[in-house]
Amino acid sequence: MSDTDDTAAAQPLHYRIRREAGGAIAGLAAWFQGNWRENRWFRRLVLAAGAGLLLLIAGWFLLARDLPDAEVLLEYETNLPSVVRGADGEIVHRYERERRVALQFKDLPPQLLNAYTSAEDKTFWTHGGIDAGGFIGAVIDYVSKIGTGQRAVGGSTITQQLAKNIMIGDEYSITRKLREMILATRIESVLSKEEIITLYLNEIPLGRRSFGVQAAARAYFDKDVDDLALHEMAYLAILPKAPESYSREANFDQALVRRNIVLGQMFDNGHITAEERDAARAMPLGLIQGARAERSADAGYFLEEVRRQLIERFGETAEDGRNSVYAGGLWVRTSLDTELQDAARDALRAALLRYHGNRGWTGPVATLNPDNGNMASQLASSNLSISYEDWRIAVVTGRSGQSAAIAFADGREASLTGGVPDAMKAGDVIAVSPQGNGWRLRAVPEVSGGFVAQDPHTGRVLAMQGGFDSRLSDFNRATQANRQPGSTIKPFVYAAGLDAGMTPATMVPDSQYCYYQGANLGEKCFTNFGGSRGGGEYPMRYGLEQSKNLMTVHIAMDTGMEQVIKTFEAVGIADKGAYQPYPAFALGAGDTTVLRMVNAYSTLVNHGRLNAPTVIDYVQDRDGKVIYKSDTRECTGCNMDEWDGSPMPRLAPRGRQVMDARTAFQVVNMLTGVIERGTATRLRDLNIPLFGKTGTSTGPTNAWFVGGSPDIVAGAYVGFDQPRNLGGWIQGGNTGAPIFGDFVRASRDRWDGRPFLAPEGVRMVRIDRRTGRRVFDGWPTNEPQSAVIWEAFKPDTEPRRSQRQDEIDAMRELILAQLRRREEGPTGASSERPSETPGNFVEEQGGIY
Fold first, then answer.
1. Which of 80-89, 110-119, 294-303, 696-705 has the weakest average pLDDT?
2. Exposed site from 168, 614, 615, 646, fewest CB < 10 Å?
């Protein structure tokens, strides 16, 4: 070995590696320089390669520079509909424009995952976002179809489809495909395979307005994903390619072929056995036809009010915030009582149909323009429908003489049988029902009305009906129609009088009342219903039971109209300043709504405590966190870890005190007489403790009843949307009260017959209901016309026992005569004894008052 070799061997290894690499690089550089100088094709090839590389880098930056950050998917939340529950916790409705249900990975059946990976991306679990083989095949297919107008096979992996559906869009171009591939690799670096496929299966559009496999399982098979059979899973897996096409009956044969191909791919990939494949292939598609019946209570007016309040608070779409109504996935607990809602709907409809009677067809529900194209399609777009017995909504497409052709929203055509009104024309939207081989015209009542039922102790609205059917008109007459309440406002006039020092036994004149309105208007005189000028003097109770206008005006003017208006405002009948201190307002001349009136009557039952009416109990976000609740009371100490020996913590009473509790009970107690012997005696046969008041506004244009029990207060009115005379025979007693009666009968199990309880500080005293005098020697009976009744008084306001003055003077003289004879002795001039010995006056009469 030479000295040179020894020196080289003694050098460190890394030094020798650098030396040899340097030599190689130097040799390569020399080769490149030589070819560059001597070979022009080499120079051109190098320049072309450099230019291509620069273009590739520039293209990469151009394509990727504005791509969304894949990390946003870490916090991405699927748009979800809001779910509405009733008071019992059952789902009653969904606010959705797209069917969506978000599942977790653990909720996805393994065979459903296998079906989708077999159909869409068999290498999903191993690739890094791009399937090279699938991409090359897609490129070849794209080139072969250039100029043919046909769309090339996508060749996208599940990750690429996720990027397209959520972050890029569905533009058909090479640029979009390249951007999709770049983003797919980024997604794979951010999310796990489980997260990717879960997000994909929750977002993929699958037809019938369904997004995600759970919504599609419901739309096509009315099942949850974990209940799907193998052939049903395979069918859902074919839908991403052409969801709208494969769901049409005309394409069922193609869908069946494609489904069976997917089953074969599942077998080839080792996910199912040959026996399972063959058994699934032998099954029909089994799709449900038509629109799937959604679980929804028939409470359109109530649910629309809930929706309006939610949108006002949280917004409508995803752009409005995380908790929007149509994207936030809210869980909404409402106060809707479906049993009471059905009773309210049926009771109001029955009243409207009773009033309509035999008036015949009153005109179309709506009118479409025949010049705007297919009228069946127009009808479908209008969303008009009806849910009453077997009635349906149709549009008149033409008429000839006394016959007419009609079409339904689904495109089916038919003809009207029977008479066709002369006024009916093409474009009229009408209600019809089956009759023989045709259809018969039905008349939707022109008259309308509103109904509300409420829990008086909490303000929770239990039922709401704002017209005949919300599908025909979304105008909610329970909350939006301002109507004159007529005599239903009188109890609050009487409440003002009681607060001013009157009692239910105060004698009030039932005589004509006139007052001077000024030089321009002159004198105004009031009369009772029917024009009677009244006469005599009666206890306050009588005026309320018999709805005496003149007595009411006397009470209002003696109390002061300013104070009466303040009472109206305190219980929420009118906003501050809405009513003026004129006597006409004491008789119901102002405008208000059914909801306001029912809430005011609830205040009476609730011993003067006013609660705001609510339709929403609380709202939870998609994670279950409560983000709104109507009851905001705090319970201090309710969540203590250990009891500290103090009294049990309790919530404060709900609402605020706006009326003396004793006054409120006095009014309720008088209003029970309206049922027993007043203007609403037709409700007496219900045989449960009730209070209430009828009302008829001038015209009459509105017929009312508001009342209830200690636990449910309800009210309704009937009237035309454009107020006009209902007819001289219409009154609250014969039109409004029957609605309440039907409501109670339809929900009889909810009325327990509990009596009204008096608050502290009320004395129940026996009085003569005709004279208002106190009674000591008689007792009330169960007879409605009993002369003696129990009346409610505040302490020291009950009537005193009175005697005629001449009787008192005579008794006084008799006692004095006896005393004189005793003093004069048996021989005196006055020794003659009376024929009868007087009894003990104080004991017999119960005291001298």
1. 294-303
2. 646
Distance CA 473, CA 204 (A): 35
Give the C-alpha separation, 295 to 293, whole Å.
6
> Which residue pairs from 814-823 have beta carbons closer than 8 angstroms and sit at least 24 positions apart in sequence?
814/838, 815/841
Closest CA to 464 of 695, 749, 716: 716
Mean pLDDT value across residues 563-591: 95
The total number of residues shown for the chain amounts to 849
Task: Find the helix or strand (DSSP H, E) in which 564 lies.
Answer: helix 561-570
Is residue 414 helix, strand or coil? strand
603, 662, 691, 690: which is closest to 793 by C-alpha?
662
- The single-letter code of the amino acid at 742 is D
Q: How many CA atoms lie within 13 A of 258 on its CB side?
A: 21
The tens digit of pLDDT for each residue in 130-157 reads: 876 655 555 555 555 555 554 444 558 8
Beta carbons within 10 angstroms of residue 53's beta carbon: 10
Q: Is 441 helix (H, G, I), strand (E, B) or coil?
A: strand
Instruction: Give the active site residues.
Output: 120, 487
What's the rounded Cα separation, in Å, for the pair 140 and 564?
Answer: 87
Residues 6+ apart with CB under 8 A from 18: none
Find tokens 């199990």 and name the residue. 749
CB distance 406 to 396 below 8 Å? yes
Contact criterion met (CB below 8 Å) for 709 and 689: yes
From residue 669, how far is each of 205, 492, 538 by CA, in Å? 62, 13, 17
**Strand, helix or coil at 730?**
coil
- What's the pTM? 0.82
Q: Could you give the CA distance from residue 812 to residue 845 in angstroms, rounded to a whole number?
A: 14
Token look-up 């109770």 returns 541
Mean pLDDT, rounded, for 769-797 = 92
CA distance 590 to 702: 13
Strand, coil or helix: 245: helix
